[in-house]
Amino acid sequence: MPVVRPPLVNGEIYHIVIHAVDPLKLFRDEKNYLRMVHDLFEFNNENPASWHYRQYYENRSRSIDKGFKKIKVKEKRKLLVEILGFCLMPNHVHLLVRQVKDGGISKFMRKIGAGYGIYYNQKYQRKGHIFQGKYRIVHIRNEEQLKTVFVYIHTNPVALVFSKWKEQGIRIKDLNKVIKFLEDYRWSSYSDYLQIKNFPSLTSREFLFKIMGGVKGCREFVNDWLQCKKELADYKYITIE
Asked: How many structural domains compose the chain?
């Protein structure tokens, strides 16, 4: 069945998911996760990846955000998209982006697919595609859907500790454990929205921060949904797996 893709319009916001081919794990260790985070930063640029980036990424420190600041790039970065949110899971990636250049999303996703794919195949001595066909994408049409997709993306990691939580819910005795797990989960933008600095140079948070109602609002929306206290607008529309 062909993938129906919305028109990609400057200024509009989109939820994107890219999956690994079965049964491949996109991220086998911390270095893989760090590489993807750095790719999301570096490839969000009309200019080609700098030689500084190619030379640096294997030897970077644990704090990759410091690594961003260490790389000296002479020409000003020309962003393709604004990254409003992200979440890296073992076999897929969620992105929430706003297109800022004509063709920006398409170019950004091509660069991610090629750049991370080449890295992964070289590192693990394999051949062939690592991503499952074309990325999936939906257009976020209003603020209520935006709040929903914020919660959906940032609660995705709960499945790593409770695989059937969406069907069965979370027991009260496990709630604090789940909340702490999400707030400590390093491979998403959630902690940055809670002002627990993780990768602050990667995401543009001011716009969504206002819509969600600051740190308090971000935390309440997420925690209320975990406790089944809040219905989310157009949930089925924005969820793509």
From this structure: 2
Say what the pTM is.
0.90
Alpha-carbon 160 to chain mean position = 16
Does residue 130 contact residue 116 with C-beta atoms inside 8 Å? yes
Asked whether the beta carbons of 132 and 22 are under 8 A apart, the reply is yes
Quote the CA–CA distance of 39 and 118 in Å, as a whole number: 12
Check: CB of residue 238 under 8 Å from CB of residue 148: yes
Q: What share of the chain in percent tops pLDDT 90?
A: 72
Provide the CATH number for the domain around residue 133: 3.30.70.1290
Q: Give the end of a domain, one of 94, 111, 139.
A: 139
Instruction: Identify residue 112 by its one-letter amino acid code.
Output: I
Q: Which residues of 151-177 are buried (b: 16+ CB within 10 A; e: fewer)?
A: bbbbbbbbeeebeebeeeebeeebeee
Tell me if residue 133 falls in helix, strand or coil.
coil
Kindly report the average pLDDT of the chain as a whole number: 89
Give the confidence band of 64 by pLDDT, cuts at 50, 70, 90: low
CB 109 within 8 A of CB 16: yes
